């Protein structure tokens, strides 16, 4: 018997992982949630059939979405995380002693419960006293926030389904308002490779450019996401992601990472020509 | 044949049966189930093209219904609590015109509020009926026209005892209702028919705790836009009739102007939507109201905006309010409604129903999702943060009482000439000028053009309102009576 998980990356491209067995399947008010175990990637989580994370490569995504803004901001104390019910971003954030509070806003409580039970690799720091979890729509939560966060991390799903509000201009504008004068917002920025993903990436970039004075994009290699070539958005009111970056200072913190390091930080903002062109088209 | 109930949809069922028969078409439409126009078929879908068929025995004929359309109309009448109901494929415009053409011949008087939809005044041109306008009460803060006050209707009846009918638009676009029951009773005491433009009130018939419906109030006719809150396809409507209306004569009136090739896409959409609302309308509209109420409270919390509701009720010209409507007053943030309307679309990819000088209306229905409501609220908050300014120098006047000097028909057909807008004051207009939506005329044929109206037209144009009705597409010139 062979059991395979398959996701269509485009109508003409499929990506499959051989499944050893299924650990969980259920439907929440918002989406279908599945957890599988596999020989190659360990356990993995899918929402509505789309790959969210695998135990083997989640460190790349979570380190890159967290440490880049945390290393640029000189003194990040109050952090807001939107989405990220798997706990991976929270795990990375709790490694900073300077952080005073982490507000996590996840629309789907069941995702958090399922991850706590089946994905302890990521969902392992929810009990840190600095972490406060709110189960509500991020678009609604942030509407009421003004001038109160140093860093906002938007760990959204895709720009369709329950997470689509997190790719809108009204949401980015609300993030701007919720940040302090030197605040930074980082977001999951889709892929530049396949046409449909690239179009979503451009739409998202255009809206961020219109909302923040500094808006840059950086990349990472994430093997289980479509094309493997993935982008993050770095939007900021004051700090430039490389000019205002002090790698030595970050190294002194002694946070042990597997992907992120100061040289890679700077390098991640150097983009391929075709990506630069896609971004320029909407700037 | 088994007895029909609201679980049936006779036209829909007949179309499904017809599709299975795989009849070879040597009749119109010439696209022959889509095969003759593949680009259109790919765009609309094969299922859609397959039922775009012509009237024939198994599918009945809207002009003279004897089988499945007759059954479907009977079920619709039952669902709406009417004596009879007709399926309309020319929009509610055609329903409004038919009920006026039924009630009035040339020279007959009809009492109506001035803030009617253009379709009602068009019917005056078609029939030669003479409108007796009751100026609606106005809320000067919001700048919107309200319902008809009972005392004004009484006065109009005393002054025009020979009027044949009273027309009421209920609810208005903004959700405002008149005292339908008292006005209906009053009209009937004086032997006048009661015609209700209920374009925005389909849900009143199926939801709970909504204002009274025309049929429940004993009105004689009502035009209902099923395609607005009822979920059917654009252009499909119902004409409802009370027991004192001769439905067979009404059908002849409708057939004067309605197409003889009624679209089965429209007919089946009416049939299916009626079934859906009859079976599940209570729940559907409870959800709609819940979303509208939630949005209203969140929007009012933003500050500046005023999403109004039942607190406006004053026992007369705002006798009741339709809480499913999300009408928002925008002037306190320093932006005209039309500016907020444009910003929502251009900046936030959100299309709302309309914006006028002081208000916007977001249409809420069961098709909305909670997360889209959150987007709308956040976008309004962002518009206030990014574009809000002082509200000084904002024009608030919305409703200007017209000076009627000729009947619409006489003015429309009279010799006329074209004048630049700024030279038109003092002349009598021979055409319509209106913002669309909502399609309520600023000027109608036969009305005096005043400097106040010209100023209003100029301001509305400058703010970006979509102006329609005039022969000159750019509304820089007006046609006036050549006298």
TrEMBL record, chain A:
Supply the InterPro entries for this chain: PABS, SAM-dependent_MTases_sf, Spermi_synthase, Spermidine_synt_N, Spermidine_synt_N_sf
Q: What is its EC number?
A: 2.5.1.16
Q: Per the UniProt entry, what are the Gene Ontology biological process annotations, in alphabetical order?
A: spermidine biosynthetic process
Quote the record's binding site residues for S-methyl-5'-thioadenosine: 31, 106, 137-138, 162
Which reaction does this enzyme catalyse, per its entry?
A: S-adenosyl 3-(methylsulfanyl)propylamine + putrescine = S-methyl-5'-thioadenosine + spermidine + H(+)
Molecular function per GO: spermidine synthase activity
Family annotation (Gene3D superfamilies): Spermidine synthase, tetramerisation domain, Vaccinia Virus protein VP39
| Keywords carried by this UniProt record | Polyamine biosynthesis, Spermidine biosynthesis, Transferase
The pathway entry for this protein reads as: Amine and polyamine biosynthesis; spermidine biosynthesis; spermidine from putrescine: step 1/1
Give me the Gene Ontology terms describing cellular component.
cytosol
Give the PABS domain ranges: 2-237
Q: Which residues bind spermidine?
A: 62, 86, 155-158
The record's PROSITE patterns line, in alphabetical order, gives: PABS_2
Specify one Pfam family.
Answer: Spermine_synt_N
What positions does UniProt annotate as the active site of this protein?
Answer: 155 (proton acceptor)
Provide the assembly information.
Answer: Homodimer or homotetramer.
Its job = Catalyzes the irreversible transfer of a propylamine group from the amino donor S-adenosylmethioninamine (decarboxy-AdoMet) to putrescine (1,4-diaminobutane) to yield spermidine.
Q: Which family does it belong to?
A: Belongs to the spermidine/spermine synthase family.
Provide the protein name. Polyamine aminopropyltransferase
Q: Which gene encodes it?
A: speE
Automatic annotation (TrEMBL), chain B:
Q: Which GO terms describe its molecular function?
A: carboxy-lyase activity
**Cross-referenced Pfam families, in alphabetical order?**
OKR_DC_1, OKR_DC_1_C
Signal peptide as annotated in the record: none
Q: Enumerate the cofactors the protein uses.
A: pyridoxal 5'-phosphate
Swiss-Prot/TrEMBL keywords: Decarboxylase, Lyase, Pyridoxal phosphate
Could you tell me which SUPFAM superfamilies the record lists for this protein? PLP-dependent transferases
The record places domain Orn/Lys/Arg decarboxylases family 1 pyridoxal-P attachment site at 10-321
Q: Where is the Orn/Lys/Arg decarboxylase C-terminal domain?
A: 416-469
The family database entries (PANTHER family) matched by this protein are listed as:
ARGININE DECARBOXYLASE (PTHR43277:SF4)
**Which family does this protein fall into?**
Belongs to the Orn/Lys/Arg decarboxylase class-I family.
Q: What is this protein called?
A: Arginine/lysine/ornithine decarboxylase
Species: Ruminococcus flavefaciens
């Amino acid at each position: 018997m062979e059991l395979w998980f398959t996701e269509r990356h485009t109508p003409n491209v499929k990506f499959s992982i051989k499944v050893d067995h299924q650990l969980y399947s259920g439907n929440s008010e918002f989406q279908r949630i599945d957890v599988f175990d596999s020989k190659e990637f360990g356990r993995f989580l899918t929402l509505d059939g789309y790959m969210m994370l695998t135990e083997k490569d989640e460190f790349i995504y979570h380190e890159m979405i967290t440490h880049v803004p945390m290393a640029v901001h000189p003194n990040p104390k109050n952090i807001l995380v939107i989405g990220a019910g798997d706990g991976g971003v929270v795990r990375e954030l709790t490694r900073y002693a300077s952080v005073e509070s982490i507000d996590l806003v996840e629309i789907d409580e069941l995702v958090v419960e399922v991850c706590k039970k089946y994905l302890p690799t990521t969902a392992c720091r929810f009990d840190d006293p600095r972490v406060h979890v709110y189960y509500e729509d991020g678009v609604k939560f942030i509407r009421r926030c003004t001038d109160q966060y140093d860093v906002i991390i938007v760990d959204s799903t895709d720009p369709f389904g329950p997470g689509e509000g997190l790719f809108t201009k009204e949401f980015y504008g609300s993030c701007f308002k919720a940040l302090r004068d030197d605040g930074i917002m980082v977001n999951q920025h889709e892929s530049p490779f396949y046409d449909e993903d690239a179009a979503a990436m451009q739409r998202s970039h255009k809206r961020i450019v219109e909302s923040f004075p500094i808006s840059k994009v950086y990349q990472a290699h994430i093997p289980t996401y479509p094309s493997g070539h993935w982008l993050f958005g770095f939007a900021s009111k004051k700090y430039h992601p490389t000019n205002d970056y002090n790698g030595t200072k970050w190294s002194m913190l002694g946070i042990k990472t597997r992907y992120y390091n100061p040289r890679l930080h700077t390098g991640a903002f150097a983009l391929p020509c075709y990506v630069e062109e896609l971004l320029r088209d909407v700037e | 044949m088994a007895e029909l109930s609201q679980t049936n949809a006779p036209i829909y069922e007949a179309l499904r049966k017809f599709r299975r028969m795989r009849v070879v078409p040597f009749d119109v439409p010439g696209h022959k189930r889509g095969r003759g126009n593949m680009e259109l078929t790919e765009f609309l879908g094969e299922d859609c093209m397959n039922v775009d068929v012509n009237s024939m025995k198994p599918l009945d004929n809207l002009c003279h219904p004897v089988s499945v359309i007759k059954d479907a109309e009977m079920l619709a009448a039952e669902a709406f609590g009417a004596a009879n109901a007709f399926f309309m494929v020319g929009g509610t415009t055609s329903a409004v015109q038919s009920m006026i053409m039924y009630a009035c011949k040339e020279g007959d008087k009809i009492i109506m509020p001035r803030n009617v939809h253009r379709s009602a005044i068009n019917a005056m041109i078609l029939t030669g009926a003479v409108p007796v306008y009751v100026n609606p009460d106005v809320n000067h803060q919001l700048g919107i026209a309200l319902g008809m006050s009972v005392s004004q209707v009484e006065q109009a009846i005393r002054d025009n005892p020979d009027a044949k009918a009273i027309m009421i638009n209920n609810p208005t676009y903004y959700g405002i209702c008149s005292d339908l029951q008292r006005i209906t009773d009053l009209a009937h005491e004086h032997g006048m028919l009661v015609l209700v433009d209920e374009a925005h009130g389909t849900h009143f018939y199926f939801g709970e705790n909504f204002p009274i419906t025309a049929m429940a109030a004993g009105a004689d006719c009502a035009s209902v836009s099923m395609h607005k809150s009822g979920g059917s396809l654009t252009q499909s409507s119902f004409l409802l009739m009370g027991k004192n209306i001769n439905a067979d004569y009404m059908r002849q009136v409708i057939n004067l102007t309605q197409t003889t090739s009624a679209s089965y896409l429209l007919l089946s959409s009416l049939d299916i939507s009626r079934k859906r609302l009859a079976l599940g309308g209570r729940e559907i509209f409870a959800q709609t109201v819940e979303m509208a109420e939630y949005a209203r409270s969140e929007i009012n919390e933003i500050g500046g905006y005023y999403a109004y509701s039942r607190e406006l009720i004053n026992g007369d010209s705002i006798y009741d309010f339709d809480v499913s409507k999300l009408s928002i007053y925008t002037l306190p943030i320093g932006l005209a409604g039309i500016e907020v309307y444009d910003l929502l679309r251009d900046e936030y990819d959100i299309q709302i129903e309309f914006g006028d000088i002081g208000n916007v209306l977001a249409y809420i229905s069961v098709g909305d999702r909670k997360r889209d409501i959150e987007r709308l609220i956040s976008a309004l908050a962002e518009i206030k943060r990014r574009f809000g300014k002082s509200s000084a120098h904002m024009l608030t006047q919305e409703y200007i009482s017209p000076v009627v000097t000729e009947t619409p028909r006489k003015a429309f057909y009279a010799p006329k000439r074209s004048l630049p807008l700024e030279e038109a004051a003092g002349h009598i207009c021979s055409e319509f000028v209106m913002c669309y939506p909502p399609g309520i005329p600023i000027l109608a044929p036969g009305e005096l053009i005043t400097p106040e109206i010209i100023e209003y037209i100029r301001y509305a144009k400058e703010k970006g309102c979509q102006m329609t009705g005039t022969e000159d597409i750019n509304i820089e010139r007006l046609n006036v009576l050549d006298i």
